[in-house]
Amino acid sequence: MTWSRALKETARDGLSIEPTRLEPLVALRGACGVALVIGLTLWLGSPTLAVSSAFGAFSAGIATFQRSWRPRPALALAAAGGLAVSTFLGYLAAAHTATFVVMLAVWTLLTGMAWAVGPVSGLVATQMVAVMLVTVTLPTSLLGALEHAALIGLGGVVQAALIVLFPVRPWGVQRDALADALAAVADYARRLRHDPVAPFDPTPLMDARSAAALTPRQARRRPRQLRGYRLLAERIRPVLASLADPVVGAAAEGPERDRARELLGATATVLDAVAHAIRKGVPVRLPPEAMAVLEVPPTGPKLDGAARRAALRLMALVNDVVESSDEPVETMTADGGRDRRYLARPTRVGMVRVAWRALRRETRWSSPVSRHAVRVSVVAAGGYLLGSALPWGHGYWAPLTSVMVLRPDFGQTFSRGVARFIGTLAGVLVAGVVVALADPAPWVSALLAVVCVGSLYLLMRTGFIVASACIGAYVVFLLGIAGAAWGQTVQARVALTLLGGVLAMAAYVVFPAWETPLLRDRLADWLTANGRYATAVLDAHARPADRRPRQVREALLDARAARAAWEQLEARAQREPVRHRGLSRRAAREAQAALSTTGRVTMLLEAHLPDRAAPPSPEAGEFAAALRTAVPEAAAAVRERRPLDWEPLREVLERWQRRAGDRPGVGVRGAELLVEALEELAEALTVAAKPSRG
Q1: pLDDT (tens digit, 9 = 90+) per residue, 604-639?
Q2: Which residues are in the Integral membrane bound transporter domain (predicted)?
């Protein structure tokens, strides 16, 4: 991506506001939490305490807006607890510059590693450093430090209490995730009407699965409307693809294709109705016209063979969806015993073990997270010393900007650096003009700060430039409560924000963690995972009596995770100013299309798994054995930039075709499509080393 294009995309994304993502009531509740904390401390304490306590409620509120499946009160309490500890440690070392710089470097290194646990943990840890940099500038004693830390923790308690007392859309994130999954399958059904081999992005299904993981306490309280639909959507998706595919499903033209289009459209209508009901928490209203289509026609079946089996299977699954929609919306699970029919989420103690394993996994020099932790630690310490040495005052703004801008990947670091500077400049200038002209009293400054917080919470899930402007204005008004000189604040923030952004970008250039060189490794991982998925499905065709559905399911989840890892890496690589010498962009696109096809073909085979009483298929077993041998060798060839050789697999397929004769079944047809997709992958990577001209 060129620099000019990156700047244009940053400006467009940073200023875009999506009305559908706005949550006014949630934003109002978060702003009330900040207002309550500021008002009480300003009334009972002092302006300095009001400024300090406001950061706890402010940051705890930000944590609750992140995309996490954990309960919002728990997020608020965890964020405020970490902020309180960070503040107290900063006060202990603030008396001496050298001691504080060492403390800042060590603490930033540790918090930088929090990105290994997840993006929410990384964001909260980033705010811990930011609060340490700001609050320690407020003069106090050791007892005062304890008081400041306690007030910051109180801010999280207030936010958590408001969430419990005034719930807005309980289970809202889980409802949205499940509704998005059903809507994605519905959209897939509609696209299959016009494109029988349309691609499908499994990300909504993966998000819905993550949202479905619960603790035992959550499982007892989960509404029945959130149970069962996800698994039905998972089972409907391969049946849709099987029905629409012109090779193993309905014929490409004629009455069969017309009937398939009717079934696909009706299924999409039903799934959309269920998705709307789940998202809004209302009973499902099913259109009778769509339900009439999802019945066997009175004139007799219009589909034959594998297409008819897929249609009957689809009707049965949609009927299961209809029966599930008859359950009461707000009926809870039975009290007492534990319901084991859910994905288990680690408890608080279990999360400690999960976090520790994640940290150990990323504690290596080649890890982007480890390199990010080192990078942000050095920049924070160096930026603090440099900012303190400059005559502008407010020297902490430089490291504060660097810490808030730096991310483990270059794309987010660059876009956030530009957006933060533009947004902060606008916010500081507007707020500075207001303060200069009106000279507001502490209570008025507090009110303006709360208005900025409410605007931030409302617009947080939209453009980062807009959010940065709200944060910049909020800090100016907040410091105005304590009597900070507005002119000095504006001048220092503009200059030192620019300095912090430059330091962040320079740090990434000097000590990069480019992800472009990892493209071939992720492609090989995806190929390996798809191979295991195909092998598991073919083994089920070969020995129906011995098949294990769990084995196929786990292989499918691994293939999805590998695909998601590739797509995430490939998207980040496109934003990096470096190129892969052994994989051009065109080759990457063609290879991605080929591997997506292998996943789709395997899904078609999974949709036609034989019954346990069906006779075994030795040919499918031979093909699975050949695939089990060929895929690891091909994955190694991808990593080592060698040509891929699928000739042994082609020979096994030809023997299978000869034995099938003129009546090939679904298995041999799927194997043909699978080999064609693998050969397309080999062809795409044959010229991958040639430089891209795009």
Answers
A1: 999 888 888 888 889 999 999 999 999 999 999 999
A2: 384-506
Q: CA–CA distance from 412 to each of 207, 324, 568, 575 (Å)?
A: 21, 42, 12, 9
E strand residue ranges, 321-404: 343-344
The β-bridge partners of 344 are 214
Amino acid at 283: P
Say which residue, 223 or 636, is predicted with more confidence: 636
Provide the pLDDT for residue 5. 59
Within 8 A by CB and 6+ apart from 280, the residues are: none
Are 448 and 435 within 8 A, CB to CB? no
Rg (CA), the chain: 29
Q: How far apart are CA 136 and CA 88, in angstroms?
A: 9
* Beta-carbon count within 10 A of 631 CB: 22
- pLDDT of amino acid 325: 65
186 close to 267: Cβ distance less than 8 angstroms:
yes
Amino acid at position 565, single letter: A
Q: Is 426 helix (H, G, I), strand (E, B) or coil?
A: helix
Residue 297 has pLDDT above 60, yes or no: yes
Position 395 scores a pLDDT of 75
Distance CA 689, CA 531 (A): 24
Tokens 């030809």 locate to 654
For the whole model, what pTM was predicted?
Answer: 0.80
Cβ-based neighbour number of residue 334 at 10 Å: 8
| Neighbouring residues of 594: CB distance < 8 A, sequence distance ≥ 6 | 677, 678, 680, 681, 684
Confidence band for 139, pLDDT divided at 50, 70 and 90: low
Q: How far is CA 521 from CA 362, 365, 531, in A?
A: 17, 17, 15
